[in-house]
Each structure stands twice: as structure tokens, then as C-alpha cells.
Amino acid sequence: MPEASPPNDAGRRWLAGIAAGLVHQDTIGPSPDGPSLGWIGPRPFTLGETNELRRAARFAAAPLAVLAARATLTATLEAYLGRRSAARVLAAPLRRGIGETIQAALLVADLRGFTALSDSNPPTQVISALDSWFDRIAGAVHAFGGEVLKFIGDGVLAIFPVVNGAPRGACDAALRAVSAARAGMAHLDKERGRQGLPPLPFGAALHLGEMLWGNIGAADRLDFTAIGPAVNLVSRLEGLCRPLGKAVLVSGAFAVETEAPLIPLGTHALRGIASPCAVFTLPEN
């Protein structure tokens, strides 16, 4: 029998029914879907006809199965890595050393007093508090075009990549995300107060710089993340929130790229960072 051509949509539905044993052929002859398809009726197909039609059905279903598998893989990777990172993983080889240097506004944020919260509450309540916090900080990041790279304990590392060499857009988006997260957490704290639960204060730091965005890890266990001096600086800067008594701190490199009103807090040494960092904060209101 000659090689069958790929069936059209109607043919695919018909072949699927045949493969499932739900329909039979009456007479072989011309049909609306081409000469290789027959009318449906009471006579069973011969063994040869059945095998050929099942082969054709597999031919039709294979591309759909591949597409479905890829869609499932993409959705899974996006859930764990974020949309941009998932796209990079899918497009590149799975090995160390695969990555690129990008400029981005970086955000690091974490909860205050999380250790005490964990020690004094059952795990289900701790997880519920974490989920509520992550919903608000990650939701704000994604709403303004950023991407969460990591959840680290009760902390978050997020980036707002610079597009077309314009850092101001990334910095302004990061500031709006932080403001939205603060508003969301204020609303959550009111709700927790009505339930007799303590508030969930947090600290956040913003910085602008370059980072290596790609695969690191062991030969048989990779992690897709961001590393570099900028990541180290923003992490150390967030550690100043508690001693300075501020919810949000902004680096000098970030401050020069935004017209948002900021309050200078002087220059501070950061642990492990060679040069002191100019530090700013947001107005309270």
C-alpha cells in the first residue's frame, strides 16, 4: 500500500475513532476526506486495513503528543524557574558554563522575625504565612515585568532586566513592585490582626548592576540562577534594613537611574564588599 499522506482535521477525528475500535468501514471508495478514507458502516475492516489505519492514526497523533509534552515541560519549568529563565533553559544545552551577562535591577527581600515565627507556630501556619508573603511579593514583581529567580527560605531574589539599554525603565518598575508589595502586605497584616495573628514585617533592597545569568552547580545537578558582585551587594544591602530601621533600602547605583523621591542615608560599608555604598530609602508615605 502506498505511503499515506497526513490526514486533515476531519480525517484525524475519524482515524482516532477507528484506532479506538469505535467505528467500522462499509465500502472502500471515494469519501469527503480523500481516497484513502471510506464510508462508515457495519462491515469490520480487514486486518491489513486496520493495521494501516492505526499506523496512520499514530502518524496523526504523534505531533500532537510531542506538542503536548513540550507544553507540559514548559509549564513545569516556568512554575519552578520563571518565564524568562525557563525559556533560556529550554533553548540552551543542559551543562555548566551556559549563561550570559545581563544588566538588571535586582531586588532582595525577606521577612523579619521568621525564625521566631517558625519556632512558635505549627508548620501548617508557617507555610500559610510564607505562601501569603510570597503571593504578594512575587505577584508585585510579576505585575511590573520582573521575574522571581529564587525563593530562599523566607527570602526572594528577583530581577528586572534592562531592555534596550535603558536602566530607568527597569529601576522604576522595581520601585513600583516594591510599593505594590508594601501595600499588599499592609492589607495582609490588617487581616492577620483580625485573626489574632502577628504582622509579617519585611525588608527589601534594590540595586542596579550586571550579573551572570545561567547554569551553575555540579556535573549532575544544575541550578539556573544569577551570580556576581551585584547579587552580593544587594544581598548585603538588604541586611542593613534592620540596623537602619528601614523597610526599603536603595543603592546609589540604582538611585541615579530614577527620578523617584529618595532620602539619602549616607555611605555605608557592606560586609564582603570592597567599596562603601551610598544608601537611600523611600519616603514613609
Q: How would you characterize this protein structure?
A:
There is one protein chain. With 285 residues, this protein is an alpha+beta fold. The chain folds into 2 domains: 9-81, no CATH class; 95-281, 2-Layer Sandwich (Alpha-Beta Plaits), CATH 3.30.70. The protein has helices at residues 9-19, 47-81, 83-91, 114-120, 123-143, 167-194, 229-238, 241-244, 252-255; strands at residues 99-111, 147-152, 155-161, 202-218, 221-227, 248-251, 263-268, 277-281. Strands 1, 2, 3, 4, 5, 6, 7 and 8 form an 8-stranded mixed β-sheet that branches. Strand 4 (202-218) and strand 5 (221-227) form a beta hairpin. It is globular. It starts with 8 loop residues before the first helix and ends with a strand. The model is unreliable at 1-5 and 21-42 (pLDDT under 50).
Record field, number of beta strands: 8
Poorly predicted regions? 1-5, 21-42
The CATH topology of the largest domain is given as Alpha-Beta Plaits
Mean pLDDT: 82
The CATH H-level homologous superfamily of the largest domain: Nucleotide cyclase, GGDEF domain
Outline the biggest β-sheet: 8 strands, mixed
Tally of alpha and pi helices: 9
